[in-house]
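User: I'm new to structure prediction. If I give you an amino acid sequence, what do you actually give back? Let's try with this one:
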Amino acid sequence: MKKILFSVLFTAAVVTGGRAQDAGTQQQIDKIYGMMQDVQAAQELQAKKLTALEKDIAELRDKVNTPAASPDNASRDDLKNLAEKVQEIDKKRQTDRELILKEIEKLGKVATAAPVHSKPTPAPSVAPADGGDNPVAPAVPQKGYEYVVQAGDTVGLIAKAYREKGVKVTATQILKANPGLDATKLYVGKKVFIPDANAK
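Assistant: Good question. You get back a string of structure tokens that encode the predicted 3D arrangement of the chain. For your 200 residues, that looks like this:
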């Protein structure tokens, strides 16, 4: 199972290698890696439970093979019940394994999908930072662009897209230019002011 997990991680890393600097892609890779760690931990826990059950079965067999001198010895019914429980756990383990593999496959497909960004759109020198009726003057500078948040956007990805268009801007500058903007709560359709120090 570890080989499968590492091969999925390697495949995701190779597919997304060309976009490794893209913060959104890196976050997806980190998320997949974290989920694979969780899957490994769950499998190790199940393996420990199976080992404990095997030990219990061995002890019960020993008790069955010893003379019934004490009331602590297990009966054949006890062994049968324990064997049924082991079979149930094994079936559940198989079902969990299939579910985990399906989820990893879905995550691999998500990791290969590239985020879609709109092109920068010139905006007035003063833009509403909160999308409301009252314009709020950005802290610095006051010339720039207005950007409409798209699905999957982060402040870092927006800044990167503008830098690729020749606008020298950082995520920190965007946050300063938009008082009250919460980088963790970017809503699709929200207007964000992108400052441009070079704009005349």
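You can read the tokens as a compact description of the fold. Here is one thing that stands out. The two ends are 59 Å apart (CA to CA).
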